[in-house]
Amino acid sequence: ESEEESNGVNLMEFSDEILLHILSYVPCTDLVLNVRRTCRKLATLCLDKSLTHTVLLQKDYKVNKDKVKQLMRDIGKEIYQLNMAGCYWLPSSTIDHVTRCKNLVKLNLSGCHVTSLRLSKMLSTLQHLRSLAIDVNPGFDASQLSGECKATLSRVLELKQTLYTPSYGVVPCCTSLEKLLLYFEILDRSREGFMLSGQLMVGESNVPHYQNLRIFYARLAPGYVNQEVVRLYLAVLSDRTPENLHAFLISAPGSFAETGATKNLLDSMARNVRLDALQLPKAWINGSGLLQHLKFNNPFYFSFSRCTLSGGHLIQRVINGGRDLKSLTSLNLSGCVHCLAPESLSRKAEDDIDSSILESLVVSCCNLRHLNLSAAHHHSSVSIGNHLCQLLSRLKHLLSLALPVCSITDVAAGVEKPPTTPHLVPQSFGRKVRIGIQTYPRNLADQANQKIESSVFWALMGSLRFLETLEIIGSSFSSAMPRNEPAIRNSLPPCVRAQSVGDSEVAAISQLTYLQSLTLAQLPNILTGSGLVPIGLQCQHLRTLSLANLGMMGKVVYMSALMDMLKHCKCLRDLRLEQPYFCAGAQFFQALSHCSSLQRLCIVSRSGTLQSDAVMSFMASCLEVIMCHMFMGESLTVCKNLQQSIVRSFQAERPALNVVISPLLHEDLAEVIRDVPMRHLDEITLFKSRVAEEPPNLWW
Q1: For residue 587, what are the domain limits?
Q2: Residue 111 pLDDT
Q3: Where does the F-box domain start and stop, copy by copy (predicted)?
Q4: Helices (H), strands (E): how many in the chain?
Q5: In whole angstroms, what separates CA 454 from the centre of its chain?
Q6: CATH at 513
Q7: 582 lies in a domain?
Q8: Which end of the chain is more exposed for a tag (fewer CB within 10 A), N or C?
């Protein structure tokens, strides 16, 4: 035996505890179907209860029907929690094999194809089930549910239901509900163009049983029908508010008017319950004294997104004059334009914030882990020590943070120097950059020479060492791809103060060693994108990257730096790029091929171009990619041909493959988007701020 072999470490010599910890990072399908067949020791360890108790298939994009069948046959009786959320590629017959899991307590089938008959057959055998997540699609018929199925549903305590058609779904059968999560994804028009009605079937009204409800959550996609249907769900709550209700959350875009029934519900809540989590439509809060009357226990989540709530009301009515709110871990003030000002009547949205309000917030809510201040102009004054970034640096527990671009401006620097020359020319023109010549600093030291590292944003990034998610979004940014509407052709100009935020601020983000998700949108002073390179080098845990409208809009000034960055992003799984005139050519895809872990790619580009051969080569070299969405300036024929080529070449090897390639400004774009699986649409294709979007750990 050689010296090298004698000094080597044999994996099998590790203790069982260490091996079990290592094996916990391996997908369950690989453990059961592959790893356990290698040797006797691993055969035993792979079937340990700690590894088979909970089976997560929700992002195992390589799993297919046969693997699920074999998995259920081998360890079905050992599974107590099964998560198949978003497995849209599996045929509905796959669900039949879940009946082998007789001891299931938690089951997540969101995004899976399940008919009411299959659901009935499956639930009839799962007598121990207490937590269920399903979709309710057109054609769902509750009358097809058997007595055994309804008996199982009567014992369910937690239900997550995504509605694609007006219906109560299985809610009337769940008589013991303690947690109800509702996602309304009903379109106003059918595929044939007929208007849909929000009225439910006769005989279904006031059937839901909410007497034991502790958590009520409803998230509405845009559309009038969704509002109609959710009002029917709320009607029962308005008659009798559950005594144990401690979380009431409704997320509704746009205008969702308050009615007499909802006002009665809120009045009843003010009298009878003490809440730990609250989110309401803006029309229900604006101009009302509701917050003054609601009582809170130990709140952990507040969302006042898009409300006209002033900072004075926030401090007085929510924080109660600065009382201890150490229990609050998540706060969403996105679009709350006056939340850091004493009052909102005479204030302009661009006026300076009142730093004392933010300081009270930071002191009272010192354990915040998730904070969203995006979609507003939060301008700090020149006074020393009171900059927004300096105050936020006290929140040492932050894990995710969303800020408007103009809020990170170093005020002193911004006052001393005018906007740089490139902003004095129209955004549709720019100095030509020679291809092949690097026009940005080659290392972080050069970057530091451009701007002193003592800026307030640099200091903030240095103090939030454990931050995992960061969003820096222009206060007036809007994506070119809104939900259920044609693509937006014009965007609002960036805030004046955002003009001084550029490459050096982006470079400051590289201090976040544990960063996993980064979003940068509408940073007009990006000249070369040089700050992206150190992020790629130092943020080695980065999994999600979203860049939108960086630099001048007439050209992609950061392409060279982006390609250098991507060569270092070995853990990157999701990439979203939104930029006019983006050229998705051979050089770009060659750089992107270095991202060996990449699974999902989305490019949105007005007047953008692509090279079909380069896309095909990229798909062939990056074997993990299962989603390719491109909305460009190419013709419909070019897009369709490329989409068909990708599907034809790779669908057999990648069962979860989802490809959408379409002209961005095509009139049928909304119809194309409606066929995208909700998992991809919600997580990457549509742009939105995701920090504190929902309470933490809302669903497992």
Answers
A1: 456-684
A2: 96
A3: 8-55
A4: 26, 22
A5: 32
A6: 3.80.10.10
A7: yes
A8: N
Instruction: Give the DSSP H/E element, type plus range, for residue 520.
Output: strand 517-523
How far apart are alpha carbons 631 and 259 in whole angstroms? 40
**pLDDT score of 202 more than 60:** no
User: How many CB atoms within 10 Å of residue 103?
Assistant: 15
> How is residue 694 annotated by DSSP?
S
Statement: residue 6 has pLDDT above 80: no
Closest-CA residue to 324 (of 298, 350, 359, 285): 298
- In this prediction, residue 192 has a pLDDT band, given cuts at 50, 70 and 90, of confident
Q: Which amino acid is at 128?
A: H
Structurally, the chain folds into a number of domains equal to 1
The letter for the amino acid at 563 is: M
Reported residue count of the chain is 700
Lowest mean pLDDT across 125-139, 382-396, 576-590: 382-396
Residue 457 pLDDT > 50 = yes
Spatial CB neighbours of 189, under 8 Å, sequence gap ≥ 6: 195, 196
pTM of structure: 0.92
Q: 216 and 253 in contact (C-beta within 8 Å)?
A: no
Residue with tokens 């936020």: 392
Q: Is residue 28 part of a domain?
A: no
Q: At what angle do helices 116-123 and 147-154 cross, to 10 degrees?
A: 70
Q: For residue range 594-614, list pLDDT tens digits in order.
A: 999 999 999 999 999 999 999
Q: Which residues contact residue 220 at a Cβ distance below 8 angstroms, ignoring those fewer than 6 apart?
A: 184, 226, 227, 230, 250, 251, 252, 253, 256
Neighbours of 675 (CB within 10 A): 10
Per the CB < 8 A criterion, the answer to whether 523 and 472 are in contact is yes
Across the range 236-242, mean pLDDT stands at: 83
pLDDT in tens, 310-321: 888 888 878 775
C-alpha span between 200 and 424 (Å, rounded): 57
pLDDT band at 411 (very low <50, low <70, confident <90, very high): confident
Where do the H-state alpha helices sit in 379-443?
Answer: 388-392, 411-416
Q: Where are the beta strands (DSSP E) in 117-268?
A: 131-136, 158-163, 179-184, 215-220, 247-251
Q: Per the domain annotation, does 608 fall within a domain? A: yes
Residues 550-575: b if buried by 16+ CB within 10 A, e if exposed: bbbbebbbbbbbbbbbbbbbebbbbb
Alpha helices in 375-435 (DSSP H): 388-392, 411-416
Tell how strand 215-220 and strand 247-251 pair up. parallel
The structure tokens listed for 282 are 């803006």
- Return d(Cα 133, Cα 183) in angstroms, integer: 11
Quick: pLDDT tens for 631-656. 999 999 999 999 999 999 999 999 99
Q: Is residue 502 part of a domain?
A: yes
Q: Is the pLDDT of residue 194 over 80?
A: no
Residue whose structure tokens are 């239900």: 159
CA–CA gap between residue 169 and residue 699 (Å, rounded): 19
Q: Where are the alpha helices (DSSP H) in 527-585?
A: 532-538, 559-566
CB of 101 closer than 8 Å to CB of 79? yes
- What digits encode the pLDDT tens for the residues 45-92? 999 999 999 999 999 999 999 999 999 999 999 999 999 999 999 999
Q: What does pLDDT average to over the chain?
A: 89
Q: DSSP letters of 61-78?
A: TT--HHHHHHHHHHHGGG
List the structure tokens of 22.
């290592």
